[in-house]
Amino acid sequence: MQIETHNVLWLDATQRVSIKDLVDLSGLVEEEVCELVFAGALVPSDYNQSPWTFSGDCVLTVRKASRLRDDLELDSHALALTLQLLEQVRALEAEVARLRAQQSAVAR
Amino acid sequence: MKYKDYYAILGVERTATDDEIKKAYRNLARKYHPDVSRDPDGEEKFKDAAEAYKTLKDAEKRAAYDRLGKHPSGEEFKPSQDWGDQFKTQFGDGASSFDGVDLSDLFASFSRGRSAHNAAGGMGGPRGNTSRPIPGEDYDVTTQITLEEAYGGTLVGLNLSVPTYDAQGQMKRETRTLEARIPKGATDGQRLRLRGQGSKGINGGRDGDVYLNIALRPHPLYRVDGYDLYIDLPLAPWEAALGTTVVVPTLAGRVNLKVAPAINSGQQLRLGKRGLPKPGDGEGDLFAVVKIAMPAELSEREQALFKELAEASTFNPRSQLFNEVSHAN
Lengths: 108, 329
Hints:
The complex is a heterodimer.
Chain A: E1 4-7, E2 9-10, E3 16-18, H1 19-26, H2 30-38, E4 53-55, H3 58-72, H4 76-102
Antiparallel strand pairs in A: 3-4
Chain B: H1 6-10, H2 18-32, H3 42-56, H4 59-67, H5 81-86, H6 103-108, E1 139-145, H7 147-152, E2 154-165, E3 171-182, E4 191-194, E5 210-216, E6 222-225, E7 228-235, H8 237-242, E8 244-250, E9 253-259, E10 268-271, E11 286-292, H9 300-312, H10 319-328
Parallel strand pairs in B: 1-5, 7-11
Antiparallel strand pairs in B: 2-3, 4-5, 6-7, 8-9, 10-11
Helix pairs in contact in B: 2-3
């Protein structure tokens, strides 16, 4: 059986995506994406530059927003708050992982 | 298809009201939603709860589900011809037409013509009568790779259960196998996208994507922090005191590392650009964390030498402790 091999796209700060990309990939509408920006849950690369562009990892944020909106039936305010709290949890977990990595295995 | 007891999944009676069903779903969603839950089985539990809720919150689907009768969970069954005649789905034309279909596909097909919305990461892709574009289904897949694979890049195999449609528009699920080329530079938690490799869009809708979540397998030697690596470097007490040159294994091979005299446990020695490669350009660093190791047993000669050292040395490693206590008092 012939198995197709495909190249991947990075979803990180090395990539730039437009607001249309975020809409197309998430199922959110443009107004919802803008609300996330105004609420601080989504940060454009340069807030003052029009049109906005975003780093590639924002694709993950808007997809998460779409899932939470649909699955937990959240309104825009609750959605923005939830995303911000989840980002805080992610940052804290990354910090814990970093400190664990730096510790000697014996000390842990 | 396998029977799923949607009421049992939500933990409600078959006579539950719409409000009770909604409340039960919301409780489970808060507990097991994959974006908020740390439960390793949370995603599967949430998928089951969401599938159950999607059917039971809709009066027509709930009536159709109830008419399937009650079966033990997991039992193979097929809807009767009468059921197929009464409830119009895209399936049901002929005895074998429910083959390759699961319960969620069956009830998702009720949606045709009612909504073209199929959210990214949704539960299924109904092929509707509508001519509105319907995007293909996205897939979120976690794949584990070794540190060595992350360092050099690798290929990972993926098996996806994708909906396919025959000439009559009837849907079946098939396993699609593909390979993703993971370039060097992927690290733990890295997210990658395979554009257009999810299920096919309908009526001109975009093809779905595959989102890969990279998880690094634990390594016996190295701990990972982003693109930096940490390794324990055991030193004998006399090596820590006098300094030495030791051989350190790196992902690119062994290197010599010079250790300065009077080094302490916990100090980190940086080997620049010996960590994981970064996407595009550059590399992380490798840090050797000093760990002073004592022999399990000392020979008589070693004991004598340590005693001689103890008598000759004026070093008190605990002097700071007593200074701090006297200041506090």
